[in-house]
Amino acid sequence: MSPIYPFAAIVGQEQLKQALLICAVDPTVGGVLVRGDKGSAKSTAARGLAAVLPAIRRAAGCGYNCEPDHPLPLCPVCSGGARALHDGPVPFINLPLGATEDRVLGSLDFEKALQGGKQAFKPGLLAAAHRGMLYIDEVNLLADHLVDVLLDAAAMGVNTVEREGLAVSHPARVTLLGTMNQEEGDLRPQLLDRFGLMVDVAAPREPALRAEVVRRRLAFEADPAGFAAQWQTDSEALRENIAAARALLPQTRLSDSLFHFVSELCCEFDVSSLRADIVLNKAARALAALDGRIDASAEDIRDAARLVLPHRRRRKPFEQSGLDQDKLEQMTRQASTPPPPSPQEQDHSQPPPDADGEQEPNPASHGSEQIFAAAPAGDIARIRVQAQSLGDAAGRRSDGASRQRGHYVRAEANPQPAQLAVDATLRHAILRDPDHFAVTRADLHDKVRVAKQGNLILLVVDASGSMAARQRMEQVKGTVMSLLEDAYRRRDQVALIAFRGQQAELLLPPCNRVEQAELALRELPTGGRTPLAHALALAADTLSRQLGGPAPLLVILSDGRANVALDGDGDPWRQALDLAGQLAGAPALVLDTEQDFVRLGRARELAEALGAEYLACDALTGEQLTLTIQQRLGR
């Protein structure tokens, strides 16, 4: 067993350590999700916590971690009467991203079935983590079929398995510990809400703290046992504090006014889930118990709110998570010292807040350049690509069955399997004839895998001087925002190319951080000439680097008025058409931004050269529109 870095030796990360200690005191809080960059002590803190938790009493060899006073009838160790109990460490089970459902839920015990011809259940990871912690590194990359399993277990506290003639239920009360890097995608909302607490962490920015982190880490790697011994006293004190807080927790309470304060916070910060109110109460009481107090305070609720509420707020796409700290502090002060409810003391002389509203700021000027905001969502079309319209060719983060790639989720009978499912094959043979075990071709099963397929949307946006009219550029940005919102919901990849002046620029390479594309779009200046040929050449190069997967979708927003030649020589418009012809055949869409009274129709010609769907942006205003391009994507 590899040595564990002491929890007490972690430098900084106070909010992370606070969240983990809350779960240590009250496991019913629901676990902790830790989001942050690589190398910010996420995994170190999670593993270190398990080492300082008070031991639990269990029977040696028990695969279900049965409670001593409530042994399970199906447990072969605990159901036999006399058993040897001992105090052991709290289970800390790692859930691999590639685990199968059988490994997580449990499955038929082959050994007992082969030896005795009887069906017996072999407990899985959920049973092993009962009364302990289930740790999932990079939880946002967990396959959906495993997420569904965890949601069921987290909701009921019981794992139920019904398959291959087995019908088994056992307790599975686990504390979920998940870590993730947001650059690799978001978490499903249903699973996100199941995490009682969430912490955003980052490496310290103070040089002195960073130096101390490195100093301690190097000392640990040089002598793990000696380093742990140096922190043994602090670790024991922490363990005793957790045990004392657990004992005090049943006596802790919130006053009626603080109960109201909890609900007031959830309403003020627009939290939809009632689970937030419950967890916030529990977390505040746990903080009081850790401090040795029976009565929780408004400050305890404030500290708990920073962990409970941010990931449960109703958020629009691209809106950053978090709380208004000034408002939270103000409400905490009011809850700590509530004013007397006297009508005479109410001051009605104050004028109403800013009845005129905010004035629209002037666009930031950069010489001949300007930065325009995106048009409000209600003023532009809502552009979406329907999953049912695109089919498997479009990706759309849909589940695609595959015999070769993806997660192994189930097996199907197949006398000529491409990938033999040994477990299902043996199960079928045993159940077919338990007394005379033999595998025949009729028992063979094939593995069925499910892989996630994400579509790439490459946005090519004209930011030249011909787009400098405020209404035009605001509409273009608003239209792109609509496409980004759809990509955000479907977890597609996006890339953003902008062209203006003398060249095109890849503002955002292909990634699933849609928020970065939105930020780049908001800060995109407008002005200069129109290097359309440069943009198409850069788009072709970007698309050529995509290996495998569904066909990318190219979306061009421009009026088509090319006036910058490649290498400064030649006809810019003819070069743009030639490059469009080279891209022909790929799924593409041209949104015409031309709004002049006399129109050249260049964008339509560009669409014809690309073999792309053509739509005029001004025709989209004020209506809902769904783009069906199944034929383009199917080529």
Automatic annotation (TrEMBL):
Keywords: ATP-binding, Nucleotide-binding. GO terms for molecular function: ATP binding. The keyword Transmembrane helix does not apply. Involved in bacteriochlorophyll biosynthesis; introduces a magnesium ion into protoporphyrin IX to yield Mg-protoporphyrin IX. SUPFAM superfamilies: P-loop containing nucleoside triphosphate hydrolases, vWA-like. InterPro entries: AAA+_ATPase, BchD/ChlD_VWA, ChlI/MoxR_AAA_lid, Cob_chelat_sub_put, Mg-chelatase_DI-like, Mg_chelatse_chII-like_cat_dom, P-loop_NTPase, VWF_A. Pathway: Porphyrin-containing compound metabolism; bacteriochlorophyll biosynthesis. Signal peptide: none annotated. The lineage of its organism: Bacteria, Pseudomonadati, Pseudomonadota, Betaproteobacteria, Neisseriales. Belongs to the Mg-chelatase subunits D/I family. It comes from the Bacteria. It holds the Pfam family Mg_chelatase. SMART domains: AAA, VWA. Residues 456-635 form the VWFA domain. PANTHER family: CHELATASE-RELATED, MG-PROTOPORPHYRIN IX CHELATASE. Residues 312-366 are annotated as: Disordered. This is Mg-protoporphyrin IX chelatase.
